[in-house]
Structure formats: structure tokens, C-alpha cells
Amino acid sequence: MIRDLALQGAQMLFVLGLAPLLTGFVRKVKARLLRRRGPPLLQPYRDLARLLRKEVVLADGASWLFRVIPYIVFAGTWVAASLVPTFGSGLLFSWSADLIAIIALLGSARFFLALAGLDVGTAFGGIGSSREVMIASLAEPAMLMIVFTLALIAGSTQLSTMAAYMVSAAVGLRVSLGLALLALIMVAIAENARIPVDNPATHLELTMVHEAMVLEYSGRHLALIDLSSELKLLLYVSVIACLFVPWGIVPPGADAQAIAVGLACYLGKLAAGGVLLAVFETSIAKMRVFRVPAFLGAALMLGLLATLLLFVSGSL
Amino acid sequence: MIDALAGVLLIPAAAAALLALLPGYRMTARLNVVATLLTLLTAASLFVVAPTSGSYLLVDDLNKVFIVLTTFVGFTTSVFSASYIGHEMESGRLTPTFARFYHAMYQTLMFAMNLALVANNIGLMWVAIELATLTTVLMVGIYRTHEALEAAWKYFILGSVGIALALFGTILVYMAARPVIGEGVAAMVWTVLITKAARFDPALLNVAFVFLLLGYGTKVGLAPLHAWLPDAHAEGPTPISAVLSGLLLNVALYALLRFKMLLALNPGAIAPGPLMVTMGLISCVFAAFMLYRRRDIKRMFAYSSIEHMGIIVFAFGMGGALANFAGLLHMTMHSLTKSAIFFAVGHIAQVKGTQKIADIGGLTVSNPVLGWGLVLGVVAIAGLPPLGIFTSEFLVISSTFAREPWLAVILVFGILVALGGLFLRLGTIAFGAPRGPTAKADASYVPMFAHLAIVFTAGIYMPPALVAGFQNVAKLLG
Amino acid sequence: MLRGNLSFDVAHLLAGSLVLVSFMQLYQDRLYALLNIFALHALVLAASVAWQAFIQDAPHLYLTATIALVFKAIVIPAALHRIIVRLGIHREIETVVGVGPAMLLGMGLVALSMVVMLRVTADADPLAREDLAFALSVVLLGLLMMVTRRNAVSQVIGFMSLENGLVLAATGAKGMPLVVEISVAFSVLIAFIVIGIFLFRIRERFDTVDVQALDRFRGERQ
Amino acid sequence: MMTVYALAGVAVLLALAPIALAFAASARATDAVYGVALVTTSALCVIAMASLFERPAVVSTAVLPIGLPWLGAHFRIDALAAFFLVVVNLGGVAASLFALGYGRHEELPQRVLPFYPAYLAAMNLVVMADDAFSFLVAWEFMSLTSWALVIAHHRDAGNIRAGYIYLLMAGFGTFAMLLAFGLLAGDNGNYAFDTIRAARPAGGLAALVLILTLIGAGSKAGVVPLHAWLPLAHPAAPSHVSALMSGVMTKVAVYGFVRVVFDLLGAPDWWWSMVVLAVGGVTAVMGVLYALMQHDLKRLLAYHTVENIGIIYIGLGLALAFKAHGMAVAAALALSAALFHVFNHSVFKSLLFFGAGAVLNATGERDMEHLGGLIHRMPQTAFVFLVGCAAISALPPLNGFVSEWLTFQAILLSPQLPSWGLKFLVPAVGALLALSAALAAACFVKAFGVSFLGRARTPQAANAQETDSNSLAAMYFLAALCLVAGVLPGIFIDALAPVTHALVGTSMPHQSGLDWLTVVPIAQSRSSYNGLLVFLFVTLSGSIAAFAIHRLASDRLRRGPAWDCGYPDPSPATQYTASSFAQPIRRVYGTTVFRAREIGEMPPPGSTAPARLTVILHDLIWDAGYAPIAAFIGYAADRLNVLQFLTIRRYLTLVFAALVLLLLVLAIWQ
With an 8 Å Cβ cutoff, is D653 touching chain C? Predict the structure, then answer.
């Protein structure tokens, strides 16, 4: 019990600590691919620290909600991230929220972030929020269809159970899985505001979505928001990892050495994911906002197709 | 010796003679009320002691219901008409002569209708209905305006043809009965006819029923024989509109029912049901559509009378315990509700000085009591609970749908269309900003609310005695 | 026996001729002529009623016959004659359908009434049966006349011949009570109609008694 | 016995109506009526809870010697009725409490007070009725009273029209139900539910009954395409009544559907569920899309009622499917999900309408384009409204999420269904459900953001005052309920056990007593959710973060002008409006669903005329379904109207024709 509790706590701090590193890693790789030296790996930590130390400049029109939201967003994302099996499955509290609940948690984080965009009453905030919810309105159903597919295969919506099932031989190779993976990647890109849907680095007003939403934030608030988006990226990568490359995940109650192995595997997966993401982002151009629906609609269709194909391909 | 049966005839007759002589409208109006009250009491006594029916007069469960209903509405209407006529006299639309004439005619009408109801002889019944028609013709034309005369003339001509057709049917019934019963009065007496109907010649009965259906159907106001009805309602004095819708239609219906019973007893004859169902449906749907383009409030409610008569005839045409019960209930409720509505409309016309729907508006603001009274009446007539008409419509439709789904669907369609038409107008008449003059209505609301109260009660609770009576009649009608 | 046959034949003849006269009415297109034909109609009716009174030896029917004779054959035609003179409409009758089609329709109606009535089983005595067939056709022809003629006088005539048919049926119905009362009542009705026409004329509300003018105002036409 | 008590309560409400009518003019009437209504509904609520929790198995009945004389009026409280009584009266309590404050601002109290208690009574009676006649009387009486409330503000022609359409649709629905009951009762009129239940109708007849009930109850619940009246009528009424209509009356309609389809009818065929599922899915998505196009706050809420009704029908359809295939446990899960959502929606929809009412009172505005910045003027209202928005957007840890989560769990059981049609339909419906959930979140970001956040767009909004304490109390009460039901769903699911047990033969596994009060629909390994823990985690980590940052890092704060990429514009007109916020979604979905078109007019250079953007939306359902009917009726009325103006001779011709026709019939008969 105590051990599990410790494990859970460790997991929470672990993801919290690891998230900026992943972002930094991706940036670094991207820079390298562009033949730049790029910022050091630990740059995100420095940014966060600096932001945290700075004072907050609050817009005149901002309400109490505007100040609360960063904490809500951070908390929601963090809890969600800490419930995803990273290097070890069977976390103590993993059963308190299944994959659907995790998605819903991220959804509520987005809900409040969009509200924050509208709070000050500026044009850019509005642009950001309205585009964000438009993207979400397609990304969430797509995500849920993917969950359906996997849940129907694994017979569960519990990430630990699903991971355990995926690692077992019973899975076999299914076309549905492929479709689901593809769709999941598309959704993940959209959710994390990466190219081609959105550009985390841009401040070119008319193209930004996420950044426009949080435009009015500064200081510790901004730090929390950035941290939570880094957490989100980590979360998605780990979800993909534990669902589609579940090897090396430590079953509950393993000894320290096994844990170490699992940890190594996990870090490897993260690195691979980061590299792939970077490559993808550098090799593609950002698309116009109103081509995003087509992109995500495709994801939704893929998800639905994957669900339906389950009945024809393979036996349940 | 004079029993209650003779009473319901003699009192109005005597009153008619008296009122024809007496001058001055106030006293005569009161006398009118008293006479109708007496008639009502006499009629009510029929339930206590049922006189034996002779070869000319008859009383049974069926016409008891009708008589009491007739005399009751006759009474309340006379109360209403007392105040109404008073207003008309003051506003000078009626001269004293005509007022006297009006009251005399009113009693004559009462007499004629009672006679038609208690007559045990198909010939006598026919005479009575003709008399009733003629009196109403005269009353419709009483205002001597261009429109009134035109309406009266239309009513007169169409009515006369109807009368002629009905007579021919009556003769045919006699012809059918004679070989079985033998010559003479006996072959025209209900009580005798009923017992022997099975052996009549079916072909003759069929032709007879066709003529009777059209003849009396004209009086019932079934489409396409209805033409006289809207104008007569619209142009006559409002009490007469109330009596027409509330009573005269029922009386004609009563005659129709009697003959239906006759036919139903004869195995060889054509089933009267389908014919009645068809005409009922036509009337209901047709009248429902006619509601939409009405500009005159009285004419609109006249068409709603046609619609409801259609429903009633439909119910009786369907037959069966439930449907017949529903038909009777619907007839009673419709008489009460529709006369109440016409009371309201009469007050409205006097307050606003017009019958044009376009010039009436926001009544619930300008005259709350009147306005809400009208709303309640329309809610009732549209068949919304918890008022009586909902009950009967519920029974008709639910019992029909199990047997003849499509007929029920058509009926429902008609009722819905009618509901739409009524509430479309009600929205502007009763609600919104007030339009037109807002004089105080110095009339008594008692009759209107009395009727509505009864309808309301019946919608929630029906006394077992009444129910038993209705059920007997329903059985009688087969 | 012989009397039975004879009585049957005569009655049959009279009834048949009544139908014939109805056809003649349909054929007319002048008001005066129409009036005269109607008088003839009433005359035939009176005769047939009288005959019925004789063979049924029902004296009260003679009263009906007299009413028919006096009232319908003389008084009413005379009255209508005066109206026509007053209104100066003695020229022609504008019919809705031409005489030819009207006749054809009439034929159809007679055939129809035959078909309907001959369904009647023969045990109802043939006299009544034939009479009814004719009476029905007279009624229908009268109605046909009412709907095919535009002007009020001819409509009144149509109504009266319809009613003649009724009387024919009523008297044909052996031993039917109230026949007299009914014929009286009807005479009153007709009187009302005629008076009505007078009335409207006198009050000068309508410049003609053409029924169309009568309901120039119809319901809610503004 | 319970039934008798409940009837007594209803009688009090009914008696209250005429009294209110008599004293409506007096000043204290408002408080008196709503006060009494509050007490009575709370009593009824207690009664209902007692019969739901204490002795759920016991069915108490009562027969009154009214209604159809040979039948009497039967009333009955079983688990199902008890549950819906709780919903109804909970809504009644909240609305009455709210109205104690809100009702004071009513300018025409005499048009509201008499009908309000009657309306409450009618809804109670529908749920308690145990024979077809009483049911329909109560049902239509409910429509009638609510109609009167809809047209309470009758000087606005729009309200009159709304009431008109409402009454027509209500009549239509009632007649559909009437026909259904006519089928069930047979032509000798066995209207008592017991006899119908005993007959266990099945086969074609039952299918027809199902369709009729779907139409009848659906038209009252606002199922697409029978929803047209709802967004017109619900906003027109005073806000506390709107809350009742949207939050409670639609649930009563759902009750009617459940009562007939799950209780009265016999074993269902599998294809029934396909109909219900398809209807539900379409309703959910269409409802929310309509809502996104609105900028009238109350109408937006009304359209969301349509959406949630769709979600409920999806649950019911799933329950029907599982029941048809004898998968009792799954059916219980789906049914519990649907009923739990019934409860949840009644709570947060009432809450939201109260909030809209408070805003309406404070600003006199229903149009969001004229609001904004209210969070500064009405912080408490803003807070509770936000809770409502989060709940209806199905955000954990609030109650809306739990019921939708349960529905998803039920959907995930669909592969076990043998019939292929369902195998394929259910996932598609699941996609629709997910889509509607996401869109709902978007829509409430818009609703809350545009009306409460940002800067005030009009002086009215700028000078709004916080609403009164009674209204706030009502809203806080409901908000708390949202949280409790979201954090401790197990209690509510267990409360539903007797209901599902009565309707589908079994119930979900007992929830409360599991460690940490987790919800486990089927099995721990399969799926589980723990609202309490999630709530605790979120609050904990949030406050830890806040504490840590404020302690260890800076907590300094400076007010300054908005940054806005360097172009801040003082005019509040530069903010995003409701329609501009919805513009991306409109472009994505609206172009097909509403044939939405945008026409931008740029003035020529040099002219000072403003540039305008016109948006054209078509309500295709109205254009295709309702407009033609109206047109037909108008056309027929015109054609037939000729018959009013014929000459006497033509009328005679009609008579003549009828005569000849009938004679011909005789001639060819036999």
C-alpha cells in the first residue's frame, strides 16, 4: 500500500519533472534538423523558473476567473498525466479515472482555457478561443472513437488493463489498430497545437490558436499554462507509447531492477516519439485554419472506420 | 289529465300566446324566463314520474335526455336574452313590436322543439320540426337588415327543401310499415314501428333513410347541406344563435337517431352507420378548414358547430356502447359549451359594437371576465382537458382507432385543424393589446359561467345516475 | 277485381301524366307558359288525389284535392302572374343548362327513381310501388328545375312541383294519416315563399327577384 | 398510502390555483403562492424519496371516483413513478424558491400565479396516473397550463405565436398518445394500465404503439424533427417556468415514453431500438448545432434541452436493444445512464435557466450580443452559472460527465449484441454522442464567455446588479446538487436500482460500499470512475501548486492595460461576439446543416459607410416539414372558402347532387 502510494506520488512528480525536458528535446532536435544549434535541452526549465519569478501583469478587464484558470488548467492536466501509465502499469489510483475520464479532464482544461481567452475581451483572445473550440469539437469525438476501437479490442477502458492486454499475444495484428494509431497521432498533433494544425512557436497573429488564447497571460500564470501544455504533450506521447508499443512496461509489484528497465524503455520511447514529432514538424508546412476540419474529420472517419472494421476483421 | 309530458308542451304554448299580447319588453322578458324555468322543472319531473306514452306522445330514456337538455339551455338562454334584448332595445336595434314578436317566437320555438322530442308519431315529429324551422327563420330575419334578410331567405329556401325531403322519407317509412302493421296511425307510431321494424321492406327503408338523412341532415347542418347555418348564426340575434347551435341541431339529430334505430333493426336494410360516418367526417374536416378564413366571430363559431355535429354524427355512426355514449356526451357538452360561447360572443359584440374579428382584440385586458370566459369556452370547445368535450373525444377516438384506424386518423386530423383555426383567432381576440371600444358589459355572466361550470365538472366527475342513463340510451341506440 | 284493375290503371295513368307534365315544365323557357304548365301540373295532381280519395274511399283526401285545385292551380299561379307583370320579367327564363341537357338529366333521374323503387319487393302492393316510383321522379324533377333555373319565380314553381310529388306519394300511401295537415302545412310554406318575394319587392331591397341578386351580399364578402 | 399523501399534496397545489386567481391583484400574493408551492413541492419530494428509498418494492395505489365513471381515476406510485416524482418536485422546489425572488419583478403576476401551481400539479399527476384517461387528462392539462404561462407576456406577438405553435404541437402529441392508448385499450376500452400490462401487447400492434409513443412523447420532449415548438415556447415563459418546462416537463415526456415502452408493452423487437437510437443521435447533434447558431441566451438553453433529450433517448435506445436481446445487466446499465441523465439535466438545466432569468432581470436583455462583463457586476450568479455550464458540458467531476460516461460504457457493450444492424449503428451513434458533447462544450464556452466575460457591450450590462438572495439560494442549491451528484454518483445509481429492476428485470451492481466510493458499471477490470478522487486530486494539486508558487516564487501582481499584441482597442465592439465566436463552427457544420451563407459588403474606398457581414441561416427542418403543412392548410382553406360565397341555387345544387349520389349508391348497392 505504502509502496503503491509512493509509486503513485513518484509518478506524479516524475511526469511533472520530465515534461519540460521532452519539449526541450523536441525543440533541440528540430533546431538540429534545421541546421541550427538551438536552445539547450534545459531551456524550458529556465523559462519556467524565470516566469515564476516575474510579477504578473494583469489586464484591466480581467476577472477573478482569469486568475484562477491557470491553476485549474494545470491541475486538470497534471492529474490526467499522472494517471497514465508511463514506465509502470497498475498505478494505485489508475482505476479512479479511465481513458475516457482522462480525455474529459483534458477537455475541462481546454474549456477553462478557452474561457480565459474571452475574459479580457480582446479580439485575439476571441480568435484563439473560437478556433480552439472548433478544433476540439472535432478532435474529441475522434479521440473517443479511437478509445472505442481500443476498448472494444481490449474489453476495457482502463489504461493499465489495456496496456496489459496489448502486451499479451491475444491482440494479433489488426487493421483497426493501424487506423487507430494513425488517427491517434493526428489527434495528438492537433491537441498539442503542433504543426500543421497550429504553431507553438509563432506569434504571427492570424495563424496562432493556442498562443492567441493565452496572449494576456504573464508571469506565474503563463508558467503554469506552458507547463501544462508540456505535460499534455508528454501525456499524449505516453498514451501512444503504452497503447501501441507497450513493451517494457513494468507490471505492478516488480522489483527495483525491473523498474529501472521499464524506466529506460519509457525514456527510449519518449525520445523516439520526440524525434518523430520533430521530423514530422520540420517536414510539413502549417495548414490554413479551415483545412484543419478536413484533417481532423479524416481522423474522426479513421476512428469510426477502425471501430466498424473490428466487426469484420478479426474476431471479438 | 295533464301530466308532465303535456306540461312541457302546454307551458310554452300558453306563454307564447301570452307574450304575443303583452307589451313592454322588461316584463315580457321576465315572463319569458319564468316560463322557460317552469318548462325546465316540468321536464326535470320526467325523471321522477315517467308518464305513460300514448300514441302521439312518448317518453323514454332517449328523449328524456334531449328534453331536459333542451329545456335547460332554453332556460339559461332566456336569462341571457333578457339582458341581451334589453341592450338591443336601448341601442335601438330592436323596436318594441319586434321584441314582443321575438319573445312570442321564442316560446313557440321551445314548444316546437319539445313537441318534436316527445312526438311518438313520425308525422307529428316532422310537423314540429318544420314549425321550429319556420320560427327560427323569422327570428333570424328579425333585424331587418340587408344581411339578416338574406340569411333568413337562404335559411328558408334550403330549410324548405330539407323539410320536403324529410317528408318524402317519412312517407316512405309509412309505406314500408303499412304492409306489416296495417293502415292508419299505428303505422307511424314509434313504439309500434320499433317492435315490427325487422319485417319492413328493406329497399323502401333504404330510400327512406336517404331522404331522411338529407332532410334532417340539412337541419343538423352536415356538409354539404350546411349552407344556411353559418349565416343564420351570424346574422340573427345572439340568443337565437345559441339556441340554434345548442338545441335545434340536436333536435334534428334526435330525429335522425330514431330512424337509425329503425334501420338498425332491419337485417335487410343498408347499414346506416357508414353513411353517417362519411357525412360526419366530411363535415368535421370541411368545417375545420372553413374556420381559417372567417372574419366574423359568430360565423366562425357557427362553423365550429358544424365540425362538432360532424364528430357527433360520426360517433353515432360508429355505434357501439362506447361510441354512442361518447356521442351523447359530446352532444350534451357541445350544446352547453357552444351556447356559453355564444353568450360570451353576444356580450363581446355589444361591448365592441362589432362582430368583425379584426376589430376585436385584447379582451382579457379590456374586459377580463368576458375575455377569460371566452378563452375557457374555446379551450373547452377545442377539446382540451379538464373539460367535458375532451372526455367524449377521448372515447370516440380511442374506441374508433381499435376498429377503424384510418377513420380515427382522419377525425383526429380534422380536430387538430379545427384547434389550430380556433386558437389562431383566439390569440388576437383575447390577447395582445386591446382594440376597439371598451365599454362595460352590463349583462349577466351567470348563464355563461353556469354552462362552463357544468362542462368543467363533467370533465372531471360525472354523476353515476347520469352515466347510467347515458349507458341505457347507448344500449338503446345499439 | 275489375275495379281493382281499373283503379290501378287510372291511378297509374294520372301519376304517369304528372311526370310527363314535369317534363313539359322542364321544357318551357317562357314564364307565362311555365305558369300555365304548372297550373296543369296542379290540375293533374288534384285529379289523381281525387281519384285516390275515391278508390280508397277516404273523404278527407277530397279536401287535399280541393286545396291542390284552388290554391295551386289558381291562386298561386295568379299571384305569380302579377309578380311577373310587376317586375316585368315575363320575357324569358335564363336557364343554367340548356333545355336539351335538362331533359336528358330528367330522363336519367326518372330512370334512377325507377331502379331504386323497383327494388321494392312486390308484396308492398303494386299501386303504392308504381305511385312511389312516379312520385320520386316528380320530386327529383322538381328539384332539378330548382337548380337549373336562375330566377326566383321558376324556382318557386320547381319547389311547388316537388311538393306536388310529395302529395302524390302521401295520397298514394293508403290510409296515411295527417295527409291533409301536411298539404295544408306545405301550402302555408309556399305562401311564405311567395309573400317573401312580394316582401322583398315591396321593400325594394333587391332590384330584381333574381336569386343571385338576392344574395349579392354573401356572408363575409366585404 | 404514499399515493394518497401525494394526491393530497397535489390537491393543495390545485386548490392554490383558484385562490391565486382571486388574490393575484394583492401585493403579497406572489410570496404566498410561491411559498405554499415551495412547501408543498418539498413535501411531495420527501414523499417521493421516501417511497423510492424506504420501500422501493412496495407499490402503492389509489383510486378516486372521478374521471371515466366506470373506471375511476387510478393512481400509482412505483419505483419509476417515485423517481420521476423526485425529479419533478425537486425542480418544483428550486423553481418556487427562485421565484420567491424572481417573481417579485413580474409585471403581470395575475397571468402567472394562478397557472403556476396548476402546472406543477399537472406534472405530478401525469407521473402518478395509472390509467390512460387520467394520464392523458393530466398530460394535456400540463400542456394547457404551460401554454397559459408561455403567453403570460401576451403583448409580445412573438409569445402569442410561440404559444400557438406550442399548443398545436402539444395537441398533436396528445392525439398520438391517445391513438397509442386506443390501440392498447382495444375497442371495449380497457384503459387501466394494469389490464394493459397484463395483456403484454407485442408484435405489430406493439410496434405501432411504439412509433405513436415516440411521436407523442417525443413531440413533448422535443425530439427532432418534432422540436420546432420548444425553442419558441420555453424562452417565452417567465424564467422559472422556462426552467420547469425545459428541466422538468421534457422529463415528464420521457417518463411517458418509458412508462409505455418499458412497462406497458411486452417484449420489444430488436429493430425498435434502432429507431430510437437513430432518433436520439440525430436529436443530440441537431440540437447542439442549432444552439450554437443562437445568440438569444434562453433560446440557446432551450436548444440544449433538445440535445440532452437526444442523449437520454440514446440511453433508452441502448436499454431497449439490450433488453430485446435479453442482456439484462447491460440494459440496466443503459437505462440507469439514461435516467441518471434525466435527473442531472433537470438539475443543471434549471440552474442555467435561473441564471438566464437573473441576467434578464438585471439587464432586461436575453440577447448575448448586448451583454458581457457581467462577472464583475454579478459575481455569484456568474459562479453558479459557470458550474451549470461545466456540468452540462460533461466536464468532470460534475454530474453531467458521469451520466454521459455511463452511456459510453453502455455503448462499449454493444459488440455483444447479436444483430448486425445494431453492431454498426451503435458505434455511429456513439460518434454522434461524442460530437454533441464536444460541441456542447464549445457552445457553453460561447454562452458563458460572451455574456459573463469580456467587457460590457451595453449600458444595461454595465450597470447590472447582483440578483436577490432567494434566487441565489435556489441557484446555489442546484449547483451544490450538480457537484454532489458528480462526486458521489454511486448513491444515485443505487437509488435507480429498483427502477431498472422493475423495468428490465435486473439492476446494476451495488455501488456504494465499494472502496473510495468508486463507480464500477460492470467490472473493476473493465472500467471504473471515481468522481470523489478526481475531485480531490484536482483540488489538491491545484491548491498545492498555488500554495507552492505563492510561497516559493513571486506573488506580485500589477494591473495594466490589455496587451492584445499591441493593438488594444477601447471599444467593447472589438470583442468577439456570439456569432463571431461561432463562425468557425458555422463554417464547418453550418454550411451543410443550415445552408449557412455569409455576405460581406465592403464599402468602396473613401466612403464612410460601415462594412457589414450578413449571415443567412436556413432551418431546413422547418422549411421541409412545417412550412409545407402550413401552406397546405392555407391553400385548402382558401379553396374551400369559396363555398361560403355561393348562390342559393348552387347550394341547392349541392343538396341535389348529394341526393342523387346517395340514390345511386342505393341503386348499385347489393
Answer: yes
Domain ranges for chain C, please list them: 2-214
Per-residue pLDDT tens digits for D166-220 = 999 999 999 999 999 999 987 777 899 999 998 888 888 899 999 999 999 999 9
SS3 B203: helix
Query: Under an 8 A CB cutoff, do B431 and D663 touch?
Result: no
Per-residue pLDDT of D13-43, as tens digits, reads 999 999 998 888 787 889 999 999 999 999 9
Joined grid coordinates for residue D468: 436577490
Query: D217-237, pLDDT tens digit by residue?
Result: 999 999 989 999 999 999 999
Element (H, E) at D560: strand D557-560
B301 inside domain: yes
The H or E element spanning position D64 is strand D60-64
Average pLDDT value for residue range D598-608: 87
**CA of C179: which chain B residue's CA is closest?**
B123
Residues of chain B with pLDDT under 50: 1
E strand or H helix at D599, and its extent? strand D597-601
Residue D56 preceded by cis peptide, ω within 30: no
Determine which of B376, B401, B424 to mutate to test the interface with D (most D C-beta atoms within 10 Å). Answer: B401
Say how far apart CA D38 and CA D96 lie, in whole Å.
5
Most confident of A42-51, C47-56, C167-176: A42-51
Burial C17-26 (b: 16+ CB within 10 A, else e): bbbebbbebb
Q: What is the chain C residue with the closest CA to D644?
A: C219
Q: Does residue B364 fall inside a structural domain?
A: yes
Q: Model pTM?
A: 0.94
How far does C74 lie from chain B, in Å, by closest CA?
A: 22
Task: Quickly list H helices, D453-559.
Answer: 459-462, 469-487, 489-504, 531-552
- Residue % of chain B over a pLDDT of 70: 99
pLDDT in tens, A161-203: 888 888 887 777 778 888 999 999 999 999 998 888 887 776 6
Phi, psi for residue D294 in degrees, rounded to 5: -90, 150
B350 domain residue, yes or no: yes
Kindly determine whether residue B385 and residue D140, on different chains, have CB atoms separated by under 8 Å.
Answer: yes
Peptide bond into A196 cis (omega under 30): yes
Distance CA C157, CA C145 (A): 8
Selected residues 97-126 of chain C with any CB under 8 Å from a CB in chain B = 116-117, 119-121, 123-125
Q: Where are the domains of chain D?
A: 268-548, 582-603+610-618, 625-668
Q: How far apart are the first and last CA of chain A?
A: 35
Task: Give the ipTM.
Answer: 0.92
Domain count for chain B, please give it: 1
Task: With beta carbons less than 8 A apart as the criterion, state whether D453 and D375 touch.
Answer: yes
